[in-house]
Amino acid sequence: QWATIRLQKSVKKPQPQMPQTPAANGIIERDETPMEKEIARLHRADFEFSHIFYFCRKGFEAIVEDEVTQRFSSEELLSWNLLTRTNVNFHYISLRLTVVWVIGVIVRYCFLLPLRFTLAAIGITSMIVGTTAVGQLPNGSVKNYLSEVVHLTCSRILVRALSGTIRYHNKENRPQKGGICVANHTSPIDAIILTNDGCYAMVGQVHGGLMGVIQRATVKACPHVWFERSEIKDRHLVTKRLREHVADKSKLPILIFPEGTCINNTSVMMFKKGSFEIGGTIYPVAIKYDPQFGDAFWNSSKYNIVSYLLRIMTSWAIVCNVWYLPPMVRKEDEDAVQFANRVRSAIARQGGLTELPWDGGLKRAKVKDTFKEEQQKNYSKMLVRNGSIG
To answer: Is residue 292 scored above 50 in pLDDT?
Structure first.
């Protein structure tokens, strides 16, 4: 806050007086009037060439600031947290602030980073060795108990490696065996944040390298559900294996992130319906990070996993809140999409996140033609309904 106040005082140019207008919902002020009402208000219902300007304006609004792309970049902070110098306004404010920043760099890179790297190495090694040893035991209550001890212990070491400070709320709603835990997704460390307070069966694709070694070791001690790349494309096979897991009430709850990609800690995007077609009880969980101490969001389009982990381990700390919401079941008159939307809304309300209907796959893919065709169909239906087309 001190840095922000100093920044504001350093601005010499007077700001022009802007006319009093209602608060805009971003860089630009959007008009959320539906297409039919706006065109009907400006013109008569028949087609006019001036209708083109409506679509042009909407296109310009999307180019200046669309509500999807901005969710895939780090959220803006009101005050500087001394973690970056990329903002041109913060290149130089005063000698005192520069000295504070340099001291912070020395502390984070020369003291915290080596300590955290050592703890992370201990946690990962313990996970591999411990789960491999437990995996040699016969199936039974002793193996399950030791597996949970290993997973919890190693997860807590890894959280310490991130200087994690986590507050868990409403622990009476923690996911139970035979259920499905769904949560919003900000970072790969979301799984560690949750397993720090309880054990889960993970669901994901088989990887190579160090991640593959960890997967092969942990699956021996705990019934995680790992899929080959070819199996991921077979929705029926995936659903079958997940249903078999949920049907066994002695197995750990499945942990799923239905968004399918990381969102920047400000929003919750569309949940894939597959997780809600399995059946069983859904245990929603809301995760909200405090960006003042470190940016937990992983922009996988900009940083690889090594660069991301370096940024995380050189931040001040990872501080977040986790809310366990009451369990939810699918209603008789609900389909999977409606159920997914209801669960998403509950998570967004609890975490103070913006609820968006868009698919997180837009992070890497172009807008589907079906979305464009939908707008075209709506406009053509409007003309037909008003008798403009014979």
So the answer is: yes
